[in-house]
Amino acid sequence: MSLLVVGSVALDSVATPFGETADALGGSAVFFSVAGSILHPVQVVGVVGSDFPLTALYALEQRGIDLSGVEQAKGESFRWKARYSYDLASRETLETRLGVFADFRPKLPAGFRDAAYVFLGNIDPELQLGVLDQVKAPKLVACDTMNYWIQSKRDLLLELLRHIDILMVNDSEARELSGDWNIYRAAQWILQRGPKMTVLKQGEHGALLVDRTTTFKVPAYPLQDVFDPTGAGDAFAGGFMAHLARNGDLSPPNLRRAMVYGAAMGSFAVEAFGIQGFDKVTPADVRARVQAFKQLVHFDVDGPAGP
Amino acid sequence: MSLLVVGSVALDSVATPFGETADALGGSAVFFSVAGSILHPVQVVGVVGSDFPLTALYALEQRGIDLSGVEQAKGESFRWKARYSYDLASRETLETRLGVFADFRPKLPAGFRDAAYVFLGNIDPELQLGVLDQVKAPKLVACDTMNYWIQSKRDLLLELLRHIDILMVNDSEARELSGDWNIYRAAQWILQRGPKMTVLKQGEHGALLVDRTTTFKVPAYPLQDVFDPTGAGDAFAGGFMAHLARNGDLSPPNLRRAMVYGAAMGSFAVEAFGIQGFDKVTPADVRARVQAFKQLVHFDVDGPAGP
Protein backbone atom coordinates (compact mmCIF):
# COMPACT_ATOMS: atom_id res chain seq x y z
CA MET A 1 0.00 0.00 0.00
CA SER A 2 1.32 3.45 -0.87
CA LEU A 3 3.05 5.45 1.84
CA LEU A 4 3.31 9.23 1.72
CA VAL A 5 5.28 11.65 3.88
CA VAL A 6 5.19 15.43 3.89
CA GLY A 7 7.88 17.27 5.77
CA SER A 8 11.14 19.13 5.58
CA VAL A 9 14.02 18.38 3.24
CA ALA A 10 16.86 20.25 4.83
CA LEU A 11 20.57 20.88 5.06
CA ASP A 12 21.69 20.18 8.63
CA SER A 13 24.83 21.36 10.39
CA VAL A 14 25.18 19.40 13.60
CA ALA A 15 27.92 19.36 16.23
CA THR A 16 28.17 16.58 18.80
CA PRO A 17 31.10 15.71 21.10
CA PHE A 18 32.16 13.22 18.42
CA GLY A 19 32.37 15.49 15.39
CA GLU A 20 30.32 17.74 13.20
CA THR A 21 28.62 17.98 9.84
CA ALA A 22 27.97 20.95 7.57
CA ASP A 23 25.02 21.16 5.17
CA ALA A 24 24.37 17.44 5.43
CA LEU A 25 21.16 15.96 4.06
CA GLY A 26 18.47 16.07 6.76
CA GLY A 27 14.93 17.09 7.61
CA SER A 28 11.90 15.15 8.80
CA ALA A 29 10.83 13.86 5.37
CA VAL A 30 14.38 12.70 4.66
CA PHE A 31 14.89 10.73 7.90
CA PHE A 32 11.39 9.28 7.55
CA SER A 33 11.84 8.19 3.96
CA VAL A 34 15.40 6.89 4.31
CA ALA A 35 14.36 4.67 7.23
CA GLY A 36 10.99 3.71 5.76
CA SER A 37 12.30 2.88 2.29
CA ILE A 38 14.32 -0.01 3.69
CA LEU A 39 10.98 -1.73 4.25
CA HIS A 40 8.61 -0.18 1.71
CA PRO A 41 8.58 2.47 -1.07
CA VAL A 42 8.01 6.02 0.17
CA GLN A 43 6.55 9.04 -1.64
CA VAL A 44 7.88 12.40 -0.47
CA VAL A 45 6.23 15.82 -0.64
CA GLY A 46 8.49 18.75 0.15
CA VAL A 47 10.49 21.66 -1.19
CA VAL A 48 14.17 22.44 -1.74
CA GLY A 49 15.87 25.65 -2.79
CA SER A 50 17.81 26.32 -5.96
CA ASP A 51 21.04 25.71 -4.02
CA PHE A 52 20.14 22.16 -2.99
CA PRO A 53 22.80 19.61 -4.04
CA LEU A 54 21.23 17.38 -6.68
CA THR A 55 23.60 14.57 -5.74
CA ALA A 56 21.84 14.40 -2.37
CA LEU A 57 18.44 14.03 -4.02
CA TYR A 58 19.88 11.48 -6.42
CA ALA A 59 21.13 9.45 -3.43
CA LEU A 60 17.57 9.39 -2.06
CA GLU A 61 16.18 8.21 -5.40
CA GLN A 62 18.77 5.44 -5.43
CA ARG A 63 17.14 4.18 -2.23
CA GLY A 64 13.85 3.84 -4.09
CA ILE A 65 12.33 7.02 -2.68
CA ASP A 66 9.84 8.75 -4.98
CA LEU A 67 10.73 12.46 -5.03
CA SER A 68 8.21 13.50 -7.66
CA GLY A 69 6.42 15.50 -4.96
CA VAL A 70 9.54 17.50 -4.06
CA GLU A 71 9.53 20.83 -5.86
CA GLN A 72 12.59 22.98 -6.36
CA ALA A 73 11.82 26.65 -5.66
CA LYS A 74 13.88 29.75 -6.28
CA GLY A 75 15.79 30.72 -3.15
CA GLU A 76 17.71 29.18 -0.34
CA SER A 77 17.08 25.69 1.04
CA PHE A 78 15.92 25.14 4.64
CA ARG A 79 18.97 25.05 6.91
CA TRP A 80 19.17 23.97 10.55
CA LYS A 81 22.19 24.22 12.81
CA ALA A 82 22.44 22.72 16.29
CA ARG A 83 24.89 21.64 18.96
CA TYR A 84 24.40 18.77 21.39
CA SER A 85 25.52 18.63 25.03
CA TYR A 86 28.39 16.33 26.09
CA ASP A 87 25.94 13.55 27.00
CA LEU A 88 23.66 14.15 23.96
CA ALA A 89 20.78 14.65 26.41
CA SER A 90 20.03 18.17 25.27
CA ARG A 91 20.69 20.34 22.25
CA GLU A 92 20.79 23.98 21.39
CA THR A 93 19.44 25.19 18.07
CA LEU A 94 22.00 27.68 16.82
CA GLU A 95 20.27 28.72 13.60
CA THR A 96 17.08 28.04 11.66
CA ARG A 97 16.88 29.51 8.15
CA LEU A 98 13.53 28.60 6.62
CA GLY A 99 14.41 29.80 3.10
CA VAL A 100 11.97 28.38 0.53
CA PHE A 101 10.29 26.41 3.32
CA ALA A 102 8.68 29.65 4.57
CA ASP A 103 6.39 29.81 1.52
CA PHE A 104 5.93 26.07 1.14
CA ARG A 105 2.41 25.07 0.09
CA PRO A 106 2.44 21.29 -0.35
CA LYS A 107 0.94 20.16 -3.66
CA LEU A 108 0.46 16.45 -4.17
CA PRO A 109 1.14 15.00 -7.63
CA ALA A 110 -1.95 13.21 -8.96
CA GLY A 111 -0.28 9.86 -8.34
CA PHE A 112 0.15 10.63 -4.63
CA ARG A 113 -3.52 11.37 -3.91
CA ASP A 114 -4.36 7.71 -3.56
CA ALA A 115 -1.91 7.31 -0.67
CA ALA A 116 -3.19 4.80 1.89
CA TYR A 117 -0.66 5.58 4.65
CA VAL A 118 0.12 9.22 5.31
CA PHE A 119 2.64 10.77 7.69
CA LEU A 120 2.37 14.49 8.30
CA GLY A 121 5.83 15.54 9.45
CA ASN A 122 6.33 18.44 11.80
CA ILE A 123 5.18 21.45 9.75
CA ASP A 124 2.54 24.17 10.23
CA PRO A 125 -0.77 22.43 11.13
CA GLU A 126 -2.44 24.56 8.46
CA LEU A 127 -0.25 22.89 5.84
CA GLN A 128 -0.85 19.48 7.42
CA LEU A 129 -4.60 20.05 7.03
CA GLY A 130 -4.00 21.20 3.45
CA VAL A 131 -2.24 17.93 2.66
CA LEU A 132 -5.07 15.89 4.14
CA ASP A 133 -7.53 17.73 1.87
CA GLN A 134 -5.59 16.44 -1.13
CA VAL A 135 -5.52 12.79 -0.11
CA LYS A 136 -8.63 10.91 -1.27
CA ALA A 137 -9.19 8.10 1.20
CA PRO A 138 -6.26 7.41 3.48
CA LYS A 139 -6.33 4.21 5.52
CA LEU A 140 -4.14 5.63 8.30
CA VAL A 141 -2.93 9.16 9.00
CA ALA A 142 -0.23 9.84 11.57
CA CYS A 143 1.01 13.26 12.50
CA ASP A 144 3.91 14.91 14.32
CA THR A 145 4.03 18.43 15.74
CA MET A 146 6.21 20.51 18.05
CA ASN A 147 6.02 23.03 20.89
CA TYR A 148 6.18 25.94 18.46
CA TRP A 149 2.87 24.94 16.81
CA ILE A 150 1.31 23.94 20.13
CA GLN A 151 1.88 27.50 21.31
CA SER A 152 1.26 29.48 18.12
CA LYS A 153 -1.42 27.47 16.29
CA ARG A 154 -3.22 25.59 19.00
CA ASP A 155 -6.72 25.90 17.45
CA LEU A 156 -5.61 24.57 14.08
CA LEU A 157 -3.75 21.77 15.80
CA LEU A 158 -6.88 20.77 17.73
CA GLU A 159 -8.82 20.87 14.44
CA LEU A 160 -6.17 18.62 12.89
CA LEU A 161 -6.48 16.12 15.76
CA ARG A 162 -10.10 15.49 14.69
CA HIS A 163 -8.85 14.24 11.31
CA ILE A 164 -5.93 11.97 12.16
CA ASP A 165 -5.59 8.46 13.52
CA ILE A 166 -2.30 8.73 15.42
CA LEU A 167 -0.59 11.70 17.04
CA MET A 168 3.11 10.92 17.32
CA VAL A 169 4.94 13.39 19.58
CA ASN A 170 7.64 13.60 22.23
CA ASP A 171 6.45 13.13 25.79
CA SER A 172 7.30 16.78 26.55
CA GLU A 173 5.07 17.87 23.68
CA ALA A 174 2.23 15.69 24.97
CA ARG A 175 2.65 17.32 28.37
CA GLU A 176 2.58 20.82 26.88
CA LEU A 177 -0.39 20.10 24.62
CA SER A 178 -2.50 18.60 27.41
CA GLY A 179 -1.27 20.73 30.28
CA ASP A 180 -0.79 17.53 32.30
CA TRP A 181 2.65 16.35 33.43
CA ASN A 182 1.55 12.73 33.79
CA ILE A 183 2.13 11.24 30.35
CA TYR A 184 -0.56 8.56 30.68
CA ARG A 185 -3.19 11.15 31.52
CA ALA A 186 -1.76 13.39 28.77
CA ALA A 187 -2.22 10.51 26.33
CA GLN A 188 -5.88 10.07 27.31
CA TRP A 189 -6.39 13.82 26.94
CA ILE A 190 -5.12 13.54 23.36
CA LEU A 191 -7.35 10.53 22.61
CA GLN A 192 -10.39 12.50 23.72
CA ARG A 193 -9.63 15.04 20.96
CA GLY A 194 -9.89 12.66 18.03
CA PRO A 195 -6.95 10.30 17.45
CA LYS A 196 -7.52 6.58 17.98
CA MET A 197 -3.97 6.21 19.24
CA THR A 198 -1.02 8.27 20.31
CA VAL A 199 2.65 7.41 20.14
CA LEU A 200 4.74 9.16 22.77
CA LYS A 201 8.42 9.24 21.87
CA GLN A 202 10.76 9.23 24.88
CA GLY A 203 14.22 9.46 23.33
CA GLU A 204 16.70 7.24 25.17
CA HIS A 205 13.75 5.68 27.02
CA GLY A 206 11.94 4.40 23.95
CA ALA A 207 8.31 5.00 23.04
CA LEU A 208 4.74 4.28 24.13
CA LEU A 209 1.72 3.34 22.04
CA VAL A 210 -1.45 4.26 23.90
CA ASP A 211 -5.05 3.69 22.93
CA ARG A 212 -8.17 3.98 25.07
CA THR A 213 -7.69 0.67 26.82
CA THR A 214 -4.10 -0.50 26.44
CA THR A 215 -0.51 0.70 26.59
CA PHE A 216 2.47 -0.81 24.80
CA LYS A 217 6.02 0.15 25.67
CA VAL A 218 9.10 -0.39 23.56
CA PRO A 219 12.40 0.66 25.15
CA ALA A 220 15.25 2.22 23.21
CA TYR A 221 17.88 -0.18 21.97
CA PRO A 222 20.88 -0.34 24.35
CA LEU A 223 23.76 1.36 22.56
CA GLN A 224 27.17 1.93 24.08
CA ASP A 225 27.94 4.44 21.34
CA VAL A 226 25.49 7.09 20.23
CA PHE A 227 26.83 9.64 17.78
CA ASP A 228 23.99 11.89 16.69
CA PRO A 229 20.39 11.82 17.97
CA THR A 230 19.18 14.01 15.07
CA GLY A 231 16.32 12.47 13.14
CA ALA A 232 15.71 9.51 15.46
CA GLY A 233 12.06 10.43 15.94
CA ASP A 234 11.41 10.76 12.21
CA ALA A 235 13.27 7.53 11.53
CA PHE A 236 11.07 5.91 14.17
CA ALA A 237 8.00 7.20 12.35
CA GLY A 238 9.38 5.93 9.04
CA GLY A 239 9.91 2.43 10.38
CA PHE A 240 6.52 2.41 12.10
CA MET A 241 4.55 3.56 9.06
CA ALA A 242 6.52 1.54 6.50
CA HIS A 243 5.98 -1.66 8.45
CA LEU A 244 2.22 -1.00 8.51
CA ALA A 245 2.11 0.02 4.84
CA ARG A 246 3.98 -3.06 3.66
CA ASN A 247 1.56 -5.55 5.17
CA GLY A 248 -1.60 -3.43 5.47
CA ASP A 249 -2.38 -4.96 8.86
CA LEU A 250 -3.72 -2.57 11.50
CA SER A 251 -4.41 -5.23 14.14
CA PRO A 252 -3.11 -4.51 17.65
CA PRO A 253 -0.35 -7.17 17.42
CA ASN A 254 0.91 -5.65 14.17
CA LEU A 255 0.78 -2.12 15.58
CA ARG A 256 3.03 -3.35 18.41
CA ARG A 257 5.35 -4.89 15.86
CA ALA A 258 5.39 -1.57 13.98
CA MET A 259 6.48 0.17 17.19
CA VAL A 260 9.45 -2.15 17.41
CA TYR A 261 10.33 -1.58 13.74
CA GLY A 262 10.19 2.12 14.55
CA ALA A 263 12.46 1.72 17.54
CA ALA A 264 14.89 -0.32 15.45
CA MET A 265 15.07 2.48 12.88
CA GLY A 266 15.58 5.03 15.65
CA SER A 267 18.54 3.03 16.89
CA PHE A 268 20.16 2.92 13.43
CA ALA A 269 19.64 6.68 13.11
CA VAL A 270 21.65 7.57 16.20
CA GLU A 271 24.58 5.26 15.47
CA ALA A 272 26.08 7.68 12.95
CA PHE A 273 25.80 11.28 11.77
CA GLY A 274 22.76 12.30 9.75
CA ILE A 275 21.36 9.53 7.56
CA GLN A 276 24.68 7.65 7.45
CA GLY A 277 23.42 5.22 10.07
CA PHE A 278 21.21 3.72 7.33
CA ASP A 279 24.00 3.14 4.86
CA LYS A 280 24.10 -0.59 4.10
CA VAL A 281 21.22 -1.40 6.47
CA THR A 282 19.21 -4.21 4.85
CA PRO A 283 15.72 -5.51 5.68
CA ALA A 284 17.50 -8.50 7.26
CA ASP A 285 19.50 -6.16 9.51
CA VAL A 286 16.29 -4.48 10.63
CA ARG A 287 14.66 -7.82 11.31
CA ALA A 288 17.71 -8.93 13.34
CA ARG A 289 17.42 -5.81 15.45
CA VAL A 290 13.70 -6.42 15.98
CA GLN A 291 14.64 -9.86 17.26
CA ALA A 292 17.22 -8.24 19.55
CA PHE A 293 14.43 -6.07 20.99
CA LYS A 294 12.51 -9.25 21.71
CA GLN A 295 15.49 -10.55 23.69
CA LEU A 296 15.73 -7.23 25.50
CA VAL A 297 12.20 -7.32 26.93
CA HIS A 298 11.08 -10.93 26.85
CA PHE A 299 10.14 -12.73 30.06
CA ASP A 300 7.79 -15.55 30.97
CA VAL A 301 5.31 -14.98 33.78
CA ASP A 302 5.79 -18.56 34.95
CA GLY A 303 8.95 -20.63 35.21
CA PRO A 304 9.19 -24.40 34.88
CA ALA A 305 8.54 -24.61 38.63
CA GLY A 306 5.81 -21.95 38.91
CA PRO A 307 6.51 -18.30 39.73
CA MET B 1 15.68 -19.90 51.42
CA SER B 2 16.29 -17.26 54.06
CA LEU B 3 16.34 -13.61 52.98
CA LEU B 4 18.16 -10.93 54.98
CA VAL B 5 18.15 -7.16 54.62
CA VAL B 6 20.25 -4.62 56.44
CA GLY B 7 19.33 -0.97 56.14
CA SER B 8 17.59 1.96 57.72
CA VAL B 9 14.43 1.85 59.81
CA ALA B 10 13.32 5.45 59.81
CA LEU B 11 10.62 7.99 60.49
CA ASP B 12 9.87 9.83 57.25
CA SER B 13 8.17 13.19 56.83
CA VAL B 14 7.32 13.60 53.18
CA ALA B 15 5.42 16.32 51.33
CA THR B 16 4.12 15.81 47.80
CA PRO B 17 1.58 17.90 45.85
CA PHE B 18 -1.05 15.43 47.11
CA GLY B 19 -0.47 15.61 50.83
CA GLU B 20 2.12 15.03 53.49
CA THR B 21 3.13 12.65 56.23
CA ALA B 22 4.92 13.23 59.54
CA ASP B 23 7.11 10.62 61.25
CA ALA B 24 5.69 7.83 59.10
CA LEU B 25 7.35 4.43 59.05
CA GLY B 26 10.06 4.40 56.37
CA GLY B 27 13.67 3.59 55.59
CA SER B 28 15.31 1.22 53.13
CA ALA B 29 14.97 -1.92 55.29
CA VAL B 30 11.30 -1.16 55.87
CA PHE B 31 10.31 -0.65 52.23
CA PHE B 32 12.39 -3.70 51.26
CA SER B 33 10.86 -5.98 53.88
CA VAL B 34 7.27 -4.78 53.50
CA ALA B 35 7.38 -5.45 49.76
CA GLY B 36 9.44 -8.63 50.02
CA SER B 37 7.39 -10.19 52.78
CA ILE B 38 4.36 -10.41 50.49
CA LEU B 39 6.28 -13.12 48.65
CA HIS B 40 8.70 -14.58 51.22
CA PRO B 41 9.71 -14.14 54.88
CA VAL B 42 12.29 -11.39 55.47
CA GLN B 43 14.84 -10.99 58.28
CA VAL B 44 15.73 -7.39 59.12
CA VAL B 45 18.91 -6.00 60.67
CA GLY B 46 18.74 -2.38 61.77
CA VAL B 47 18.45 0.04 64.65
CA VAL B 48 15.74 2.28 66.08
CA GLY B 49 15.89 4.88 68.82
CA SER B 50 14.16 4.82 72.16
CA ASP B 51 11.46 7.09 70.70
CA PHE B 52 10.44 4.69 67.97
CA PRO B 53 6.71 3.83 68.03
CA LEU B 54 6.40 0.19 68.97
CA THR B 55 3.06 -0.02 67.16
CA ALA B 56 4.95 0.57 63.91
CA LEU B 57 7.30 -2.33 64.65
CA TYR B 58 4.37 -4.49 65.65
CA ALA B 59 2.71 -3.75 62.31
CA LEU B 60 5.83 -5.03 60.54
CA GLU B 61 5.84 -8.21 62.61
CA GLN B 62 2.19 -8.74 61.68
CA ARG B 63 3.37 -8.91 58.07
CA GLY B 64 5.63 -11.84 58.96
CA ILE B 65 8.81 -9.78 59.07
CA ASP B 66 11.45 -11.03 61.51
CA LEU B 67 12.70 -8.03 63.50
CA SER B 68 14.95 -9.98 65.88
CA GLY B 69 17.93 -8.23 64.26
CA VAL B 70 16.55 -4.75 64.96
CA GLU B 71 18.08 -3.33 68.13
CA GLN B 72 16.63 -0.46 70.07
CA ALA B 73 19.34 1.99 71.13
CA LYS B 74 19.19 4.94 73.49
CA GLY B 75 18.63 8.14 71.58
CA GLU B 76 16.61 9.50 68.72
CA SER B 77 15.48 7.45 65.75
CA PHE B 78 16.69 8.19 62.23
CA ARG B 79 14.48 10.88 60.69
CA TRP B 80 14.27 12.03 57.08
CA LYS B 81 12.27 14.91 55.72
CA ALA B 82 11.78 15.73 52.05
CA ARG B 83 9.58 17.61 49.63
CA TYR B 84 8.83 16.56 46.04
CA SER B 85 8.39 18.85 43.04
CA TYR B 86 4.93 19.31 41.45
CA ASP B 87 5.60 16.54 38.93
CA LEU B 88 7.37 14.25 41.46
CA ALA B 89 10.38 14.22 39.15
CA SER B 90 12.73 15.71 41.74
CA ARG B 91 12.87 16.07 45.49
CA GLU B 92 14.63 18.22 48.01
CA THR B 93 15.89 16.70 51.26
CA LEU B 94 14.91 19.16 53.95
CA GLU B 95 16.41 17.37 56.93
CA THR B 96 18.40 14.25 57.77
CA ARG B 97 18.82 13.43 61.45
CA LEU B 98 20.86 10.28 61.83
CA GLY B 99 20.23 9.85 65.56
CA VAL B 100 21.09 6.31 66.69
CA PHE B 101 21.85 5.42 63.08
CA ALA B 102 25.12 7.38 63.33
CA ASP B 103 26.64 4.79 65.67
CA PHE B 104 24.94 1.78 64.10
CA ARG B 105 27.18 -1.33 63.97
CA PRO B 106 25.05 -4.13 62.52
CA LYS B 107 25.18 -7.32 64.55
CA LEU B 108 23.51 -10.39 63.11
CA PRO B 109 21.64 -12.71 65.47
CA ALA B 110 23.02 -16.25 65.26
CA GLY B 111 19.93 -17.36 63.36
CA PHE B 112 20.54 -14.78 60.61
CA ARG B 113 24.09 -15.88 59.78
CA ASP B 114 22.89 -18.69 57.55
CA ALA B 115 21.09 -16.24 55.27
CA ALA B 116 21.18 -17.39 51.65
CA TYR B 117 19.93 -14.15 50.06
CA VAL B 118 21.34 -10.90 51.39
CA PHE B 119 20.45 -7.34 50.50
CA LEU B 120 22.77 -4.62 51.77
CA GLY B 121 20.65 -1.47 51.81
CA ASN B 122 22.15 1.95 51.30
CA ILE B 123 24.41 2.41 54.37
CA ASP B 124 28.13 3.07 54.85
CA PRO B 125 30.09 0.54 52.72
CA GLU B 126 32.21 -0.20 55.78
CA LEU B 127 29.08 -1.46 57.55
CA GLN B 128 27.98 -3.35 54.44
CA LEU B 129 31.36 -5.17 54.48
CA GLY B 130 30.92 -5.79 58.19
CA VAL B 131 27.57 -7.50 57.56
CA LEU B 132 29.06 -9.68 54.84
CA ASP B 133 31.73 -10.85 57.30
CA GLN B 134 28.97 -12.17 59.55
CA VAL B 135 27.11 -14.14 56.89
CA LYS B 136 28.50 -17.66 56.48
CA ALA B 137 27.83 -18.68 52.90
CA PRO B 138 25.38 -16.47 51.07
CA LYS B 139 24.05 -17.69 47.75
CA LEU B 140 23.40 -14.19 46.39
CA VAL B 141 24.42 -10.78 47.71
CA ALA B 142 22.94 -7.60 46.27
CA CYS B 143 23.88 -4.11 47.34
CA ASP B 144 22.65 -0.55 47.04
CA THR B 145 24.66 2.62 47.55
CA MET B 146 24.34 6.37 46.91
CA ASN B 147 26.29 9.37 45.69
CA TYR B 148 27.35 10.28 49.22
CA TRP B 149 29.30 7.02 49.64
CA ILE B 150 30.58 7.10 46.05
CA GLN B 151 32.19 10.43 46.87
CA SER B 152 33.26 9.91 50.48
CA LYS B 153 34.13 6.19 50.65
CA ARG B 154 35.05 5.24 47.11
CA ASP B 155 37.87 2.83 48.03
CA LEU B 156 35.71 0.87 50.47
CA LEU B 157 32.92 0.77 47.91
CA LEU B 158 35.28 -0.65 45.28
CA GLU B 159 36.43 -3.23 47.85
CA LEU B 160 32.79 -4.12 48.50
CA LEU B 161 32.15 -4.59 44.77
CA ARG B 162 34.62 -7.49 44.81
CA HIS B 163 32.41 -9.34 47.30
CA ILE B 164 28.90 -8.90 45.92
CA ASP B 165 26.93 -10.46 43.08
CA ILE B 166 24.65 -7.60 42.11
CA LEU B 167 25.08 -3.85 42.42
CA MET B 168 21.63 -2.25 42.38
CA VAL B 169 21.80 1.54 41.94
CA ASN B 170 20.08 4.44 40.20
CA ASP B 171 21.36 5.21 36.72
CA SER B 172 22.73 8.55 37.97
CA GLU B 173 24.74 6.69 40.64
CA ALA B 174 26.12 4.30 38.02
CA ARG B 175 27.16 7.30 35.97
CA GLU B 176 28.87 8.94 38.92
CA LEU B 177 30.61 5.75 40.05
CA SER B 178 31.99 4.94 36.60
CA GLY B 179 32.54 8.48 35.37
CA ASP B 180 30.73 7.53 32.15
CA TRP B 181 27.41 9.13 31.15
CA ASN B 182 26.45 6.21 28.89
CA ILE B 183 24.62 3.82 31.21
CA TYR B 184 25.46 0.69 29.18
CA ARG B 185 29.18 1.48 29.32
CA ALA B 186 28.78 2.42 33.00
CA ALA B 187 27.22 -0.99 33.62
CA GLN B 188 30.15 -2.77 31.99
CA TRP B 189 32.56 -0.67 34.06
CA ILE B 190 30.80 -1.92 37.19
CA LEU B 191 30.91 -5.55 36.02
CA GLN B 192 34.66 -5.30 35.55
CA ARG B 193 34.98 -4.50 39.28
CA GLY B 194 33.45 -7.68 40.58
CA PRO B 195 29.66 -8.02 40.41
CA LYS B 196 28.23 -10.61 38.04
CA MET B 197 25.28 -8.36 37.32
CA THR B 198 24.11 -4.84 37.87
CA VAL B 199 20.56 -3.53 38.17
CA LEU B 200 20.17 0.08 37.11
CA LYS B 201 17.04 1.67 38.49
CA GLN B 202 15.56 4.39 36.26
CA GLY B 203 12.58 5.65 38.24
CA GLU B 204 9.61 6.36 35.98
CA HIS B 205 11.49 4.62 33.16
CA GLY B 206 11.84 1.26 34.89
CA ALA B 207 15.03 -0.73 35.39
CA LEU B 208 17.77 -2.61 33.55
CA LEU B 209 19.44 -5.90 34.41
CA VAL B 210 22.86 -6.05 32.77
CA ASP B 211 25.39 -8.87 32.77
CA ARG B 212 28.47 -9.27 30.58
CA THR B 213 26.55 -10.43 27.53
CA THR B 214 22.89 -9.50 27.85
CA THR B 215 20.58 -6.68 28.86
CA PHE B 216 17.03 -7.00 30.13
CA LYS B 217 14.72 -4.01 30.40
CA VAL B 218 11.56 -3.75 32.43
CA PRO B 219 9.62 -0.48 32.11
CA ALA B 220 7.81 1.18 34.97
CA TYR B 221 4.13 0.35 35.27
CA PRO B 222 1.95 3.01 33.62
CA LEU B 223 0.20 4.84 36.43
CA GLN B 224 -2.10 7.82 35.94
CA ASP B 225 -1.82 8.62 39.64
CA VAL B 226 1.47 8.57 41.51
CA PHE B 227 1.35 9.84 45.06
CA ASP B 228 4.75 9.32 46.67
CA PRO B 229 7.90 7.96 44.97
CA THR B 230 9.63 7.41 48.34
CA GLY B 231 10.88 3.86 48.79
CA ALA B 232 10.13 2.65 45.27
CA GLY B 233 13.74 1.55 44.73
CA ASP B 234 13.88 -0.40 48.00
CA ALA B 235 10.48 -1.96 47.29
CA PHE B 236 11.85 -2.95 43.89
CA ALA B 237 14.82 -4.62 45.60
CA GLY B 238 12.47 -6.36 48.03
CA GLY B 239 10.36 -7.83 45.26
CA PHE B 240 13.42 -8.82 43.24
CA MET B 241 15.21 -10.58 46.10
CA ALA B 242 12.09 -12.17 47.62
CA HIS B 243 11.13 -13.70 44.29
CA LEU B 244 14.60 -15.23 43.97
CA ALA B 245 14.68 -16.40 47.60
CA ARG B 246 11.29 -18.09 47.42
CA ASN B 247 12.19 -20.35 44.51
CA GLY B 248 15.99 -20.42 44.78
CA ASP B 249 16.34 -20.24 41.02
CA LEU B 250 19.15 -18.03 39.71
CA SER B 251 18.70 -18.94 36.05
CA PRO B 252 18.56 -16.03 33.59
CA PRO B 253 14.81 -16.49 32.91
CA ASN B 254 14.07 -16.36 36.64
CA LEU B 255 16.29 -13.32 37.14
CA ARG B 256 14.21 -11.57 34.46
CA ARG B 257 11.05 -12.63 36.26
CA ALA B 258 12.52 -11.24 39.50
CA MET B 259 13.05 -7.88 37.77
CA VAL B 260 9.36 -7.78 36.90
CA TYR B 261 8.37 -8.71 40.46
CA GLY B 262 10.61 -5.86 41.56
CA ALA B 263 8.97 -3.43 39.14
CA ALA B 264 5.54 -4.56 40.33
CA MET B 265 6.51 -3.80 43.93
CA GLY B 266 7.89 -0.42 42.87
CA SER B 267 4.53 0.41 41.31
CA PHE B 268 2.61 -0.49 44.48
CA ALA B 269 5.01 1.65 46.51
CA VAL B 270 4.29 4.86 44.59
CA GLU B 271 0.51 4.49 44.56
CA ALA B 272 0.17 5.72 48.14
CA PHE B 273 2.16 7.46 50.85
CA GLY B 274 4.92 5.53 52.62
CA ILE B 275 4.25 1.82 52.92
CA GLN B 276 0.48 2.27 52.64
CA GLY B 277 0.63 1.19 49.01
CA PHE B 278 1.23 -2.36 50.27
CA ASP B 279 -1.80 -2.49 52.54
CA LYS B 280 -4.01 -5.35 51.38
CA VAL B 281 -1.67 -6.31 48.50
CA THR B 282 -1.77 -10.10 48.19
CA PRO B 283 0.55 -12.46 46.29
CA ALA B 284 -2.29 -12.78 43.76
CA ASP B 285 -2.34 -8.99 43.28
CA VAL B 286 1.40 -9.04 42.65
CA ARG B 287 1.06 -11.85 40.17
CA ALA B 288 -1.75 -9.99 38.37
CA ARG B 289 0.49 -6.97 38.03
CA VAL B 290 3.33 -9.13 36.71
CA GLN B 291 0.91 -10.36 34.07
CA ALA B 292 -0.02 -6.74 33.29
CA PHE B 293 3.68 -6.05 32.70
CA LYS B 294 3.67 -8.90 30.22
CA GLN B 295 0.81 -7.22 28.34
CA LEU B 296 2.69 -3.93 28.47
CA VAL B 297 5.80 -5.18 26.64
CA HIS B 298 4.77 -8.30 24.77
CA PHE B 299 5.07 -8.48 20.99
CA ASP B 300 5.64 -11.22 18.45
CA VAL B 301 8.46 -10.80 15.95
CA ASP B 302 6.32 -12.43 13.26
CA GLY B 303 2.63 -12.03 12.54
CA PRO B 304 0.35 -14.62 10.98
CA ALA B 305 1.38 -13.27 7.54
CA GLY B 306 5.11 -12.79 8.16
CA PRO B 307 6.65 -9.52 9.39
What proportion strand of chain A? 15-25%
Output the CATH topology of chain A.
UDP-N-acetylmuramoyl-L-alanine:D-glutamate ligase
The helix fraction of chain A, in percent, is 25-40%
Calculate Rg of chain A over CA atoms.
18 Å
Order of helix and strand elements from N to C terminus of chain A: EEEEHEHEEEEHEHHEHHEEEHHH
Largest interface (C-beta under 8 Å) = A-B, 48 and 49 residues
Structural class of chain A: alpha/beta
**Which CATH-level-2 architecture of chain A?**
3-Layer(aba) Sandwich
Write the layout of secondary structure elements.
Two copies of one chain form a homodimer.
Chain A lengths: L2 E4 L3 E7 L2 E2 L3 E3 L1 H9 L5 E7 L5 H9 L2 E8 L6 E6 L6 E7 L19 E4 L4 H10 L5 E4 L3 H6 L1 H8 L4 E5 H8 L4 H9 L5 E5 L5 E4 L4 E4 L13 H16 L4 H19 L12 H15 L10
Helix pairs in contact in A: 1-8, 6-7, 8-9, 9-10
Quick take:
With 307 residues, the first copy, chain A, is an alpha/beta fold.
Can you describe what's shown?
2 copies of one chain form a homodimer. Chain A is α/β, with parallel strands linked by helices and 307 residues long. The first copy, chain A, has one domain: 3-Layer(aba) Sandwich (UDP-N-acetylmuramoyl-L-alanine:D-glutamate ligase). Chain A is built from 10 helices and 14 strands. A 9-stranded mixed sheet of chain A has the order 6-5-1-9-10-11-12-13-14, with helices on both faces. In chain A, strands 2, 3, 4, 7 and 8 form a 5-stranded mixed sheet that branches. The longest helix of chain A is centred in the C-terminal third of the chain and has 19 residues. The radius of gyration of chain A is 18 Å and the shape is globular. At the A-B interface, helix 7, strand 14, helix 9 and helix 10 of A face helix 7, strand 14, helix 8, helix 9 and helix 10 of B.
